[in-house]
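Quick check before the chapter quiz. The format below is the same one you will see on the exam, so make sure you can read both the input and the output lines.
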Amino acid sequence: MSNDPGLAADTCIFMESVSGDGGVHNANVWWLSPDIVLNGPVSGPDKADPGQVNSVDVNFHRKGAESNCSFPGAESLIVELWVGNPSIAMTPGNQTSTKQIQLIGTQLPPEGSSGTLHINWALGANVPPSQPDSPGHKCLIARVYPDNLVPSGTSFFVPGDQHVAQRNICVVPCGGPGAARKPGPCGFEVTTANINLKEAERVTVSAILDLHPNEFVRTTVLRSLERQAGFKKLATRAPSGFRFDLREFPDAKISDHTGAPGCLGLLLGGQRRFTASINLETNQVVHLPFVADLGTAEFGDAFIFHLTQIGPANQRQGGLTLVMVSG
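Here is the expected output.
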């Protein structure tokens, strides 16, 4: 996606989607940024606890003088932190999609160095689950920029803009002790949005099974699984099937390659995926249930699914990693 025109005067300040990327967010899984760290005092990584002060660290970086980057002469930085319920695509222009929980100034780091802003997020005890700032797994977006610039109020410009990073990962326990003699279906409701505030758009949502995560994804997922009861190992065999529940989208164009890869699957690198093109109204936020059949899994297996949304002209709009643990 393109860069935020409001921040174009600065090319020095950046956040990373993968450690060491220097603000160039070209990774396939770019929504697992290590520069946003949420820890609930009770629930642990990537979760917010009600009635508690939840810790969030936002890291940011400044390029060195040798980079010849452009800086608008600001004396400090602005840090924004936005939260939402488990979501694929997120937008600041719709309060049912995201909520800003912090906007604060912070010190400008020296050239070639980094900084960290610690945020204490006091979450109320009775926030309704439908609200973006409710307890549980949270999707987060941080935006850091010079204080004399003004970013867009209608788009985050992920993943293209180097001032923005996204942290979207959720662990879903399926079943439970004594629930069944073998694993079975598992479902989880995510949301997504039309990030276009002016026009309806046809977008493509995809779910891709990741049985061979790279080291960055593997490390990130295992950290999120540290406190997950019943977890034993990352799955190495595909589940019986997985899909989005699209009953609310009768005109969806579906492509199901969740079975053993055929010729097309081999062309796609052997990936098992479910893809659907759906119509979203202007600025619409929708609930999109995701279902996986874990009947062939072993208890304690964790399945990694990467959910993505692509807009017109192959525009990357959002992503979410969903980890389902058979129980």
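If your answer matched, good. Confidence is low (pLDDT under 50) at residues 264-268.
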